[in-house]
Design goal:
single chain; 438 residues; alpha+beta; Alpha-Beta Plaits; 2 domains; 4-stranded mixed sheet; 13 helices; 21 strands; 33% helix; 26% strand
Length: 438
């Protein structure tokens, strides 16, 4: 177990690695366009080699590199645990930031930059907590599979899905995995609780295509691709999807209601979710299907009516609802607009119980006594989707004790992304404890 008291060295080691990774621009624009993943992969490869491990590099396409290393455990009869992060980040427009998105600046007790939250914080914590474990006890209780994937921000086709499909042997014997978007603290009233992500929504990225008649901008045209598309986008984006509870979200609402001291049979799920402060950004979204238009593309000149217009829509729904949601989206799009599936991925749900969940509760209880652990369904998705095809149960656990008032969910893909340095030190200790004792 790592030292429960943070030292300056603890703080600097994890923050320094996270800063180094932030300074490697690994922007992923999607559609196969990215930069920097190979450089970042070689960086973590060298860190793993320095710990005496033998990492393997898997290149799905030129410069799209993932890294996997196995840490042998003392008890080889126990199922292995996969601990994984991703090296890519979403784009950042420097014009909107108060700091250089790829500068890794430290100020106000925080590390700033694209990836500070999603998810180079965990990438760094994995390395420092693993180093602590190896130095202090030599080997973990069970085998650990340490993975750094490319391409997560574009669905993982060139990262986790590639490794799972072409090199499944590296995950041999694994039954569970931990990764991003869970484990962080939220403040409910005057108390702190931690969210353990036990499920993920299903994902569908669709393209809407409307066709019409090309003409001069001064003509009277009823067959206008742009107006057809605009109407469809407004209908789909404006759809008020009802509350839908799965096993995970039902348990989540019940636990939050109990924590807040309200009766969930009287107070509705939406009201319970919205009472969770900044965490409601994630928790409320987990209760509804979402269908958000994200990109519009039409035309090439002010005075030309184009013959085609396109829009991209991001759809997230509960596991198992995919076909009914897609049917409703096609209905909303109408007969004049084609719905094309660009990418889809499965939803996930795990029980809020079992050895790993119990271990998470125990370790958080040691480092933040009395703080409860609550289940939740992630409205987004992670590389756990790919691992689930191998029968590996995925959870979101990046342990971060956050100050009250920090709008952590807003940091994901947001402007001025940043993470408290103290939270990184806390994460190193807690993750190290889990890896050493589970």
């Amino acid at each position: 177990m790592t030292n429960p008291e943070a030292t300056l060295t603890d703080l600097e080691a994890t923050a320094a690695i996270a800063r180094d990774l932030i300074r490697i621009d690994t922007t992923n624009w999607g559609e196969g366009k990215s930069r920097g993943e190979t450089e970042a992969a070689h960086y973590v490869e060298a860190k793993l080699q320095a710990l005496g491990l033998e990492p393997q590099l898997f290149e799905s396409e030129p410069d799209r590199v993932s890294v996997v290393a196995r840490v042998p455990g003392r008890n080889r009869d126990k199922p292995a645990l996969v601990v994984h992060g991703h090296l890519d980040v979403v784009p950042a427009d420097p014009a909107n930031w108060s700091v250089d998105p790829f500068g890794g600046e430290v100020k106000d007790g925080m590390l700033w930059g694209r990836g500070a939250v999603d998810m180079k914080n965990m990438d760094a914590m994995m390395l420092t907590s693993l180093a602590d474990l190896i130095e202090q006890q030599g080997a973990p209780e069970r085998d650990l599979v340490i993975a750094y994937f490319a391409d997560e921000e574009a669905g993982g086709v060139l990262g986790s899905h590639h490794v799972v499909e072409h090199h499944p042997e590296v995950f041999a014997g694994a039954s569970a995995a931990i990764s991003e978007v869970g484990g962080y603290s939220i403040t409910l009233g005057d108390r702190r609780a931690y969210l353990l992500q036990t499920g993920e929504k299903a994902l569908m990225w669709i393209k809407l295509v409307a066709k019409g008649t090309a003409a001069h901008g001064s003509h009277v045209i009823r067959d206008n691709a742009v107006t057809k598309l605009a109407a469809a986008v407004a209908r789909i984006g404006g759809e008020e999807w009802p509350v839908r509870l799965s096993a995970t979200t039902d348990a989540m609402v019940a636990e939050v209601a109990r924590f807040l001291g309200v009766d969930p049979t009287v107070t509705g799920p939406d009201e319970v979710a919205l009472a969770t402060g900044s965490a409601s950004r994630f928790i409320h979204a987990a209760l509804h299907t979402t269908s958000n238009p994200t990109v519009l593309n039409a035309g090439y000149k002010h005075n030309v009516i184009p013959d085609q217009a396109e829009a991209l829509v991001d759809i997230r729904c509960l596991p198992g609802d995919e076909e009914s949601v897609l049917a409703r989206v096609r209905e909303l799009a109408g007969d004049d607009v084609e719905v094309v599936m660009s990418f889809r991925d499965i939803g996930l749900e795990q029980d809020f119980g079992g050895p790993l969940v119990d271990a998470v509760r125990d370790v958080l209880g040691r480092h933040d006594p009395g703080a409860p652990v609550l289940p939740y369904l992630l409205s987004g998705g992670t590389d756990n989707k790919a691992l689930s095809t191998l029968g590996i149960a995925g959870y979101g656990f990046v342990p971060l004790q956050l100050p009250a008032g920090v709008d952590f969910p807003a940091m994901f893909h947001g402007v001025d992304e940043r993470v408290p340095l103290d939270s990184l030190a806390f994460g190193r200790r807690v993750l190290g404890d889990l890896l050493a004792t589970y």
